[in-house]
């Protein structure tokens, strides 16, 4: 069973790196980029074969380590 | 006073911290991140600066889940003294012992320089050697020192007089210029600037010295 975790900064949390990317895009001539938010993708290869159990495990991993829920939200995708 | 300095792979201010504590009169033991226990009778724990676990995932995130951190959390919950400097501060926020989080500097650059640091409160065993309003010269050296917390937490920190230090000229975008904060029981301090790098004449400044002296005095007289 594989899982993909998307970690993003929560709305309202300023993302200085995303802002820098937005500026860089502008200077390359890509006009019309109103905002850039940068996040992380974590891919997990799991021994658990039951999708529901695996998803519960991954959610627990996100809460405990993969995301800092003070500033980040996460989304788990089973693949 | 029995002090323990925690060493992670990637810590690089551990020895400076030990030297500063010894100079203030502490009996210092270095503790490895895989140890499950602190030495018996530890009064004070310091989490030093550096790049624990290469700053992988998030600064301090992996260190905060290491075996020694369980013991450090128990130590703090028992009312033990705990100091986290720079990466140590990041680790303390990741453990949840201190609120908020340290994000990438607003200017995106790593900054290494002396800054003006205002003592906001002298009401703690870390800061009672200073007067509120004192301006210290202490170096910072970080890429992720931008303190972020929601309005409720910031208001709470201020109401409870838990902002220990603030920047006179905010270098990194920290909310309310916050450079260091205390726990509710005032025995846990996290700060981005490095007092252990301003604790000897050879450093070019000694404004950090009073902090180490204060904490040793507090424990010895307790």
TrEMBL record, chain A:
Organism: Parasulfitobacter algicola
Places the protein is found: Cytoplasm
Assembly: Part of the FGAM synthase complex composed of 1 PurL, 1 PurQ and 2 PurS subunits.
EC number(s) on file: 6.3.5.3
Role according to the record: Part of the phosphoribosylformylglycinamidine synthase complex involved in the purines biosynthetic pathway. Catalyzes the ATP-dependent conversion of formylglycinamide ribonucleotide (FGAR) and glutamine to yield formylglycinamidine ribonucleotide (FGAM) and glutamate. The FGAM synthase complex is composed of three subunits. PurQ produces an ammonia molecule by converting glutamine to glutamate. PurL transfers the ammonia molecule to FGAR to form FGAM in an ATP-dependent manner.
Reaction(s) catalysed (UniProt annotation): N(2)-formyl-N(1)-(5-phospho-beta-D-ribosyl)glycinamide + L-glutamine + ATP + H2O = 2-formamido-N(1)-(5-O-phospho-beta-D-ribosyl)acetamidine + L-glutamate + ADP + phosphate + H(+)
Full protein name: Phosphoribosylformylglycinamidine synthase subunit PurS
Family recorded in the similarity comment: Belongs to the PurS family.
Chain's gene name: purS
Enzyme class: ligase
Pathway of action: Purine metabolism; IMP biosynthesis via de novo pathway; 5-amino-1-(5-phospho-D-ribosyl)imidazole from N(2)-formyl-N(1)-(5-phospho-D-ribosyl)glycinamide: step 1/2
Keywords on record: ATP-binding, Cytoplasm, Ligase, Nucleotide-binding, Purine biosynthesis
Entry's Gene Ontology molecular function annotations: phosphoribosylformylglycinamidine synthase activity
One Pfam family matching this protein: PurS
Parts of the chain that traverse the membrane: none
Domain of life: Bacteria
UniProtKB/TrEMBL annotation, chain B:
Pathways involved: Purine metabolism; IMP biosynthesis via de novo pathway; 5-amino-1-(5-phospho-D-ribosyl)imidazole from N(2)-formyl-N(1)-(5-phospho-D-ribosyl)glycinamide: step 1/2
Active site: 86, 194, 196
Coiled coil: none
Alphabetized InterPro entries for the sequence: Class_I_gatase-like, PRibForGlyAmidine_synth_PurQ
Stored SMART domains: GATase_5
Pfam families: GATase_5
Keywords: ATP-binding, Cytoplasm, Glutamine amidotransferase, Hydrolase, Ligase, Nucleotide-binding, Purine biosynthesis
Localization per Swiss-Prot or TrEMBL: Cytoplasm
Superkingdom classification of source: Bacteria
Enzyme Commission code: 6.3.5.3, 3.5.1.2
Reaction it catalyzes: L-glutamine + H2O = L-glutamate + NH4(+); N(2)-formyl-N(1)-(5-phospho-beta-D-ribosyl)glycinamide + L-glutamine + ATP + H2O = 2-formamido-N(1)-(5-O-phospho-beta-D-ribosyl)acetamidine + L-glutamate + ADP + phosphate + H(+)
Subunit record text: Part of the FGAM synthase complex composed of 1 PurL, 1 PurQ and 2 PurS subunits.
HAMAP family on file: PurQ
Role, per record: Part of the phosphoribosylformylglycinamidine synthase complex involved in the purines biosynthetic pathway. Catalyzes the ATP-dependent conversion of formylglycinamide ribonucleotide (FGAR) and glutamine to yield formylglycinamidine ribonucleotide (FGAM) and glutamate. The FGAM synthase complex is composed of three subunits. PurQ produces an ammonia molecule by converting glutamine to glutamate. PurL transfers the ammonia molecule to FGAR to form FGAM in an ATP-dependent manner.
The protein, known as: Phosphoribosylformylglycinamidine synthase subunit PurQ
Source species of the chain: Parasulfitobacter algicola
